[in-house]
Design goal:
Largest sheet: 8 strands, antiparallel
Strand order of the largest sheet: 1-4-5-6-14-13-12-9
Structural class: alpha+beta
Number of helices: 5
Distance between the termini: 54 Å
Strand content: 25-35%
Number of strands: 14
Number of domains: 2
Order of helices and strands: HHHHEEEEEEEEHEEEEEE
Amino acid sequence: MNVIRFLEAMGEINDDVIMEVADIMEQTNEQEKRTRLRAGRRRLFRTLLIAAAIAAVLSATAFAAYSYLLSTPEQAVKAVKQEIRRWEELGIIAPQGEIEEDGIRVRKTEEPTELSAYYYHRIIRPHYQVSIRLNQGFLVCTVDMADGKLYGVTLSAYADEDDPIVGEGVEWGDFDGDGEDDIGYYRDNLDDLIPEGLTLDELCERLMEYWGFQGYMLAPTTDSFYEQNITYSGEMPVRELWNQPYATVYFNGDQEGVPMFIELGGFCPPGHAYSALVIGTNHIVG
């Protein structure tokens, strides 16, 4: 079988790809002639080089030609709004109210991205990062260009004066610039973020349904910041994660050996206390 017939037999491949691989194969012929190998090993050497060339060219072409569900910032914002409502319907998060149209920011990442060792070298596919101002806080999320689903979500909600103070005040120094030391207080406003009584098992089951995975396992959280291994019970209420080490979860059907994270934190700048729920491929510490 000659070069062109071999490539055409692989399916619908355009002429540019055929000519590019054909050129590589001709270069391989010349390299083979200069390589002092026995006939059998020359054939093996040539086969491996050709296979590598074809795989590289075809994978690059497939990536460039892929038709994404989301291809514009407007589509990404629309998808995020729809998916947040879906999260509300599934009971993953509490209702978030209105979305402010003038508080939206969008950034596009067209190439796959490998995260650091803190995130187990997860590969993030081409995506949009969308920031949206909500009625009572803000949302920062990663929406996949291929399937339009959310894979990294940070949802924050500001506390108000009616939310109960938790713990002692924290000294911030001269926070507001009036020459006097200021004290911030944590406030319990978790009902703005998560449904009442939600457990870790329930949250993982709902995330599993959303992402289309087939199972999950809560695993030890190992992070040098905490200097300990912690494994949470699935029966534990999610609110008990507040200001504790994040939960580590492996989902069946996700990238092999790469977990998702669930984190719930409180922050207490004077007069501006808020809580944040972090779900998916990202976490705060690390």
